[in-house]
Fold this protein.
Amino acid sequence: MNNLMTQSEYARHKGRSKQYISQLVLQGRITLTNGKIDPAKADQEIDQSADPLHPKNRKQNTEANERYENAQAARLFNDTRLRRLKIEISQGKWLPKADLHKIAFDNGHIMRDAIFAILDRHDAAYAQAENRPQAIIEIKADLQKLFSETKKRMIKQVYRSANKLSDQTLEEDEDNDDE
């Protein structure tokens, strides 16, 4: 116990200011023994309570250093993904979920109504046993045509929504495709 030092002596010993050592004592990072500091014990307490992320302390605590670097890498990765997503949204590569829901919902109603119309149109022929095979073939052809038309319509709607194209621009594109 004869190697105890005052706060001023310990500050000179460590090459630090007395205010800094007093601050460590007030924070509880250094414990006093009879109002004095045991240098060996204080050094150990400072090392244990040091900020593992501070550049001076990184070599001492490799586990905390590794966790910190992993967290920094994950944050950088997520920031990069977010920036790329914002750019792609501004370029029209992504659509708002609500727009896609509306397109699907609207086309679902159109298809439902068209299917009922097809079945109503072929109802009489299907009711007669001798016309049933032909009616089934015609119903199948009409449904295939409906699905094909609906698919094309939905693609056009998504295309318009993504690129904010007017009907005129889309029609010009279709005219150019026909040539």
About this structure: Confidence is low (pLDDT under 50) at residues 165-170.
